[in-house]
Amino acid sequence: MTDLMTELSDDDLLGNVEDTASANKILEGLNDSQEQAVSAPLSNMLVIAGAGTGKTRVLVSRIAWLIKKEQIQPRNILAVTFTNKAAGEMRDRIALMAGEIVEKQLWASTFHSICLRLLRNYARYAGLEPNFTVLDSDSQTTLIKRIMKEFEFDIKELKPSDVASRISKLKEQGIRAPAYATRGKRFDDPDYEKISRIYTAYERICNQENSADFSELLLRTVELLEVNDEVRNLQHRRFKEILVDEFQDTNSIQYRFLKLMTAPTSHIMVVGDDDQSIYGWRGADYTNMKKFLNDFKDVKEYLLALNYRSSQKILDIANTLIAKNTDRLMEKVLKANNGTGETVKILNCANNNYEADIVGKTIAKLHQEEGIKYRDIAILYRNNYLSLGFEQSLSNCRIPFIIYGGQKFFDRAEILDALAYLRLLVNEDDDTAAMRVINVPARKIGPKVVADLRAICEERSCSMIKAIKLLSAYVQQDGADKTLKTLYKKVEPFYQLINYLKENKAQKSLSELVDLTIQASGLQEMYALKDTKEGKSGEDNSRVSNLGVLVSNVKDFEIAFAKEKEDGVLKDENALITDDPLLTYLSNITLVSTSELDEEGKNSSENVADAVNMMTIHASKGLEFKYVFLVGFENTILPSKRSLEFGGKQLTEERRLAYVGITRAKQDLYITYSQNRSLFGSTNTTGASPFLREVVKAYNSSQEKPYAIIPINYQTMD
DNA sequence: ATGTTCCTTCTTTTT
DNA sequence: GAAGGAACAT
């Protein structure tokens, strides 16, 4: 492990000297409670920060403070976030405040990419080969489907995607297949037997294929840190100050990870807001905030409640709404620093067509008459599919817009096909990838041939590519079995394609290789044919142009990768020990949310186009906009149908989600709902969200209401 | 083995 | 209103 030691040893690139002047500058413009948190003496800290109270600012300023005032080396700091968006924003702001050198030296990224980085470093200690591939959720489900078919389980009765999320949940609780097999009965689950068998097989196959899914990255890192004192101590020696953003969203395995990473002599500062916990469905547990107080030594508490974002009327509604939640850790009433502001407009629309229409027209008016920039406007919704009507309406009004999330670029079939080929080039044991593309485009390899090939895999306990390799050697011998000879003939073209690409991998640049893969595999041709058949002409969103976008995305990455290698400092996301750009690229894109790409394949942060922002409320967390249209604020949508059925915890999370949506608005908030909504062909009566009724009821007898209800093509209001 | 057509199913939220 | 699956024909 000596090479690891040198990699992690101290280097004094920065020779820091305490700089009182610039340390004081950090505190400029902070209010008292912010300043207290930023300039607090070294200690474990819990910062409870309401929406819009300058949470990120405090976090970033604290990092700058640690470096300037406490003389902590940037490389001894670890900043953890939940989403890539948050990580990116934090890095940008650190670079701005403390300089690019600092930004490059400290680790600021998501739980998943930190764990990926550690695992690449210590792969062998964690039972992985260093070139392991990260399984995206699509591949995960496909693999589970494959297992279920082998067991002859009914995939209608028990859906593979359900099983996938169940297994992920188990991993997030730290429960491995053997543990589940023995303890599972207690979970009182009718599908227990099946899940247990699938889980066991799934674990075995992932190990064979040298791949890890998302939750595996966390679990395996935690297990490694628990078992391996040396690796853990290395982390302890390195990370003196750990900072965690959006702490309310941590799940149990992430919490364990933080505990393991924090040395007794190190400090950890967590920042969060229990009222903004909206990932409970994914195992997030905001009571970790309470637990934190007990589990860590001498935790100092700080509270930020002065809101810099929204006007008071918006906050009044937000406060009134969230006050209805009974399971809050702490009652916070946000106070505005920005004055009373405009009345919140609640638009009661007859149906979703009127709703989409009025939103489009209102935005057009704001832009034309008041000169509001499109980019200062956001449309937020509960579910991705709600965006459709607004897309049409905005197009009709000739309003430019960007949709974040939605149909994900890297989830498209054509992209996944191309990536499967590429995965095989770095990890030939990745049978999930092989299964996907062995007959794509069609190579006359049907279920029969695949079954025969897999039989060999079973017998030799090896991967498909390796099995073909064995075959190719075998059939050269005299008197080779005839059926095996014909089997080889069938798979030979595929095998030679992979070999051909592998040969080129060493010689060609990454983007050339990707281009070659798309061409030589025949994917390009196949999708071109499909496009023309479906009448999709060249430009607009055709599959072929998506493949082109992939190549240009790879080109961008290639340039960045080369530059960072030259700089000698690898930036966080790319910071893998490997020299293989393809492996690095593949790992990155599975972890980096695809919504960060627009249709040109560029990072949207570079996109300066003036356009209305459209996204889910979940995606909007941490962001703010001058004008917010919170649409589809309806019964069975927000709160969702499901949460209404389950009630309790699910309902309070929906209320928090509504709260997050409302508190995104700085200046003007429009809440819209429809009485009737047509969806998937049929029309349903929805009407105002019960959350809205709560708020209206609370102001029933009040003279001055912070809102006005405006009927849109509808006579009565209820 | 492949391509067609018809059918069902499914619609949270994300790493 | 799309995407995946089953059933069928070639």
Q: N-to-C terminal Cα separation, in Å?
A: 70 Å
Average pLDDT score: 86
- Put simply, the count of helices is 31
Q: Low-confidence runs (pLDDT<50, min 5 residues)?
A: 1-16, 569-577, 595-607
Computed Rg: 27 Å
Shape: globular
- Helical amount among residues, as a percent range? 40-55%
Structural class: alpha/beta
Strand content: 5-15%
The profile of the biggest β sheet is: 8 strands, mixed
> Could you give the count of β-strands?
18
Q: Which tags fit this structure?
A:
DNA-binding, eight-stranded mixed beta sheet, disordered N terminus, 718 residues, six-stranded parallel beta sheet, alpha/beta
Which helices and strands appear, and what pairs or packs with what?
Elements lengths: L1 H7 L11 H8 L4 H7 L6 E5 L5 H14 L8 E5 L2 H15 L1 H6 L1 E4 H11 L11 E3 L1 H14 L9 H13 L4 H7 L8 H18 L1 E3 H14 L1 H10 L2 E4 L7 H10 L5 E6 L15 H8 L4 E5 L1 E2 L4 H11 L12 E2 L7 E8 H19 L6 E5 L5 H10 L4 E3 L9 H14 L4 H7 L9 H14 L3 H11 L7 H26 L2 H12 L1 H11 L9 H25 L13 H11 L20 E5 H4 L4 E6 L10 H6 L1 H15 L2 E15 L2 E4 L4 H9 L8 E6 L6
Parallel strand pairs: 1-7, 1-8, 2-3, 2-6, 4-5, 6-7, 9-10, 11-16, 11-18, 12-14, 12-15, 13-14, 15-16
Antiparallel strand pairs: 16-17
This protein binds a DNA duplex (15 and 10 nucleotides) through helix 7, helix 12, helix 21, helix 28 and helix 29.
